[in-house]
Amino acid sequence: MSLDLPSRPGLRITETGLARLVLMLFTWLILVGGTPLSGSFEADADDAQGFVRTFAFLAGFLVALALAVARGRLFRAVPLPLLFLILWCALTLSWAIDPQIALGRLGLGVVVTLTLFLSIDRIGVPQALRAVTLTVTIILWADLATSMFIDSARHMVGERDADLVGLWRGLHGHKNIAGSVAALGLMLALFQCRLRTWRFWLIMVPASLMLVGSGSRTAMAVLAATLVTTMLLKVVRWRRRERVLVAVLSLLALLMAALPALAHLDAVSAFLDDPHNLTGRTALWQILVNYWLSHPWGSGFESFWRIGAASPALAFSGTTGTFAAIAPHGHNGYLDMLASTGLVGLSLTLFATMVFPLWLFFRNRRLDSHFAALGLALVLFFIFHNGLESSVLKGARVGWFVFCLGLGILASRVPKP
């Protein structure tokens, strides 16, 4: 089926082509935003950052929705665990501290989530990956060029954190976003492109340089953990005899890593109790846990940070009020969901983002092994990354885009070659 464009006789756009354009548009809007080189940090990413970006998101969503309705695939493209999570988050709006702000943020997350899954379902995983890879490659080369030749594409003197000065951020608002996009490019290259081909190096070169230039330690550490874990689980998936061996070796590795911590438990406890460690993350985690202990049902989805004077972050911040006042999130997506949506929301989050994707990886035998490995790597990147940042149902975040792409791959039916 195709759509006729009366403005240019003879030009026909297929539904597949239209869905591909929507996916590429959303990839750009999420990874870069509507105003490249603006310097706006991810604190603004939960809101649509202006009328143009909001209009683009809504237009793309309506196109994807119309294509799904026409094919009768509206309720088949999005995995049920995600739908249950969305429904629970919507229910928490009934007791949210600021329902209006929460509704806007949830609406953005739902629009992005549904559009990504509907687009992938419409064009299929191979074409979806081609569209995303092309867009990410363009972004990475633009990041590299601007970081090398344009001062505003690097963190400048006068930043809140002096350690950021000189680090590359490219088209993005912060070096951590640039690092995450570079990590995404590396995963697309390593698990999708064949070695020694020009496509591999076309994305590998700018991704590697941007990851190093951004100095994003979070992205580097998470990517390393993702690659190692993916390789182990890939072996376990196809070689049942090695499952016990991998499980034992993994347990031994965890034990060896835990022994030094157990031997110096007092020092570890003091480190975690100090609110200034882990770039201030421990202070935010303490605030989130303390709030949940006194509010078991949570504050309501996205009603904890940056909602004005009523923000629980201000009331529970104590001596870290200044940092809590400007923090965009709790730097731990799981604790954020606990404090905002309660234990039910956290349980649904863990099932939808961890248990369900891993179950698909091991049970979906119809999925080609290369696509399965890529899908797993993307989901694992999100799982690890979400422990240090916060991306669950936050539509304009790189982490959530990576997860939706990975789960969309794992939930698909790509036949073996």
Outline of the structure:
With 417 residues, the chain is an all-alpha fold. It contains 16 helices and two strands. The chain has one domain (14-410).
Describe the structure.
- The chain is mainly α and 417 residues long.
- The protein has one domain (14-410).
- The chain has 16 helices and two strands.
- A two-stranded antiparallel sheet has the order 1-2.
- The longest helix is centred in the C-terminal third of the chain and has 31 residues, at 333-363.
- The radius of gyration is 21 Å and the shape is globular.
- The two termini are 27 Å apart.
- Residues 1-11 and 41-45 have low confidence and may be disordered.
Gap between N and C termini, in Å? Answer: 27 Å
Strand order of the largest sheet: 1-2
Largest sheet: 2 strands, antiparallel
How many structural domains? 1
Which helices and strands occur, and which strands form pairs?
Elements: E1 2-4, E2 12-14, H1 15-31, H2 51-71, H3 80-92, H4 99-123, H5 125-149, H6 175-192, H7 198-214, H8 217-238, H9 243-263, H10 265-273, H11 281-294, H12 312-315, H13 321-326, H14 333-363, H15 369-385, H16 398-410
Antiparallel strand pairs: 1-2
Helix pairs in contact: 1-2, 1-4, 1-5, 2-4, 3-14, 4-5, 4-16, 5-6, 5-7, 6-7, 6-8, 6-15, 8-15, 11-14, 14-15, 15-16
What labels would you give this structure?
417 residues; mainly alpha; two-stranded antiparallel sheet; 16 helices; 1% strand; disordered N terminus
